[in-house]
Amino acid sequence: MELKGYLNIIKKRIWIIIIIMLVFITSTILIDVFIKKNIYETNATLYVGKKTEQQTAIMYDDLLMSQFLVKDYREIMKSRAVSEKVIYELKKKGKLEANVNTSTITDNIDVNLRNDTRIIEIKVKNSNPERAKDLANEFAEVFKVKIKELMKVDNIEIIDWAQVPDNPTKPEKKRDAVLAGFIGLLTGLCTIFFLEYLDNTIKTSEDVEKYLGLPVVGTIPNVECKKKEGNNGGK
C-alpha cells in the first residue's frame, strides 16, 4: 500500500520531474556546446631499452625495471629542461605563441608504460588539435635526447608519431546529458516528495483517519449535476 501511495504521488506530480530533467539536460548541453572548450588528445610512442651484443628477448627484470622507471620518465618529461626546450623549438618553427610558458603545457602531458612492454606512451591534451600533435612529437624528440644524456639509455627510438586527432575527447556530450538527466530525475523525485510532505490538506478518507484519528463512517460521492438544456428548461 505504501508503494502504491508513492507511485500515486509520482503520477500526480510527474510534470515536475519532467520539467526539472529537461532543465538539467538542456543546461548541460548548452554549457558543453557554448562554454566548455573542446579538448583534443593525441599520443606518440617510444621504445626504451638496452643494446647488448647477444640480447634477443626482453627479460623480465628489464620489464620490471621499466615499470619502476615510469615515474622517472614522467618527471623528466615535465622538467624545465625538457619543456623549455620543446617551447623553444616550437616557437622557432612558428608553431607556438610567445606567451606560452612551461606550466601551460606540462599540466596536459602524461607518460605511461604500455602493458608488459618497454614502450613509452606520451599523451598530450590541448584545445587545438594541430598543437596537440606538434607538442606530442616535439616532446618525443626532446625526450629521446634528454633520456640518453640523463639516464645513459643507449637504445630509444620513436615508434609512432602523433597524428592530428579528428574528434575531441572532452566534453563528452552524451555522457554529460545522461548524467544530467539522472541527476534531474533524483532532484525531481526529492522535490515532489518534499512538496507532498509540506502538503497537509485532507484529500481522502485515509487522510482523515491518519491525521485526525477519526473513523470514517461513510463517504459522499462527488456527483456533478448538469442542467438539461432545452426549450422548456428544467432542473
Tally of separate domains:
2
The tally of helices reads: 8
Query: Helicity range of the residues?
Result: 40-55%
Walk across the major sheet and give the strand order: 2-3-1-4
Order of helical and strand elements: HHEHHHEEHEHH
Low-confidence stretches: 53-57, 226-230
CATH class of the largest domain: Alpha Beta
In total, the number of strands is 4
CA-based shape: elongated
CATH architectural grouping of the largest domain: 2-Layer Sandwich
CATH topology value of the largest domain: Alpha-Beta Plaits
Round the Cα radius of gyration to an integer and report it: 34 Å
Give the DSSP E fraction (strand runs of 2 or more residues): 5-15%
Could you tell me the mean pLDDT? 82
Sheet bearing the most strands, described?
A: 4 strands, antiparallel
Distance between the termini: 42 Å
The CATH superfamily of the largest domain appears as EIF_2_alpha
Based on secondary structure, the structural category is alpha+beta
Topology:
Layout: H1 2-12, H2 14-35, E1 40-49, H3 60-77, H4 80-92, H5 102-106, E2 109-113, E3 119-126, H6 129-151, E4 155-160, H7 173-198, H8 205-212
Antiparallel strand pairs: 1-3, 1-4, 2-3
Helix pairs in contact: 2-7, 4-6
